[in-house]
Write a structure and sequence with these properties.
With 389 residues, the chain is an alpha/beta fold. It has 15 helices and 12 strands. It binds 3-isopropylmalic acid and magnesium ion.
Length: 389
Amino acid sequence: MTETQLNKAAEKFKNLLQLQAERNEKIKQTKEFTDYTALDKIVIGICTGDGIGPVITKQSAKVLMNILKDDVEKGKIEFKYIEGLTIENRVAALKAIPDDVLEELKSCDVILKGPTTTPQQGDGLPNIESANVAMRKELDLFANVRPVKVKEEGIDWTFFRENTEGAYAVGSMGINVDDELAIDFVVTTTEGTERIARLAYEFAKNNKKERVSIVTKANVIKTTDGKFLNLCKDIGKEYPDILTDEWYIDIMTAKLIDKKRRTDFKVFILPNLYGDIITDEAAEFQGGVGTAGSANIGKRYAMFEAIHGSAPRMVTEGRDKYADPCSMLRASAMLLSHIGYIKESEILEEALDICMFKEKKLAITGRDTGCTCEQFGEYVTETLEKLLE
Ligand code: IPM
Ligand code: MG
């Protein structure tokens, strides 16, 4: 490595530090969460994404619009379609989220977002950041809340994945120091950690969950994971009725498949990357990532999406019409409860439980051996209507 290369890398690193210090100051400024009940009108943005996104988002938008139709008529709810968050537009603008799309997103209160394609090394697309990751950062959606439930097995987990920091904070700004040495960075801030920990403990308290498990790899990633763990434990001390335990991510991924132990876990708090990985594993017990929704919560905005990606292979193989809409429907139920429509959210969850687990009149297989996405969407709508009668 030459002196010039070293200095250039140090300069880039300094720039990253400055940007993160600025972000740290900025996130401390928003203190209160939006009170949706106090708004005259709640604007729900619908962003269909790409790959299987448009097909699955269409079904959940239809269901949401149906549930909320009375309040749409009264002007309390407005749906707003946001076009343009497609891989083609993003590549053309060379931006994770084109400026005009971002502006529209910011004019909404909550967003239902279909999966979006993320360019990766070697696929010939420019190195633009994932639209999910960018949206989480731009709208400061710091908590990724991912529930997984398998009632008959006693599994009732809620993952609180930190959503704007960790390995993701500067994930597309790592440094190739020279041809041989590449470095990435992990970020933990006090505010970023305390706010996710508090949300998780408040959730545990309000939902009578007796245990919160903090999951890190603080024995190896000592500085950032160590800070995360210690701050979460400090917040935990404010909740003496809740049992706090701490785990390393490797053994926790093992414990999730230990039938005797896994039902002990209730609420998890994790840094970004571990939360990403373990929630795919967890969703598998419930029927796969196609069944799992996720809430991205910030103080001002919130966005609801599937936990999976855009499955471009299903599109190239002509199977997109068989995609499973349940992840987006679960996300829609979370959206409803977040904006204060608790009863409607519970009814939608119940309709999904009936269609997915209890009655199972139709099966989604991802191919022509099962029903189409649209047929399943209609099945959920009919079930919902019966419950609402
Ligand atoms: C998720 C996804 C995203 C993530 C990808 C698409 C960038 O896997 O929401 O879990 O890593 O966060
Ligand atoms: Mg993931």
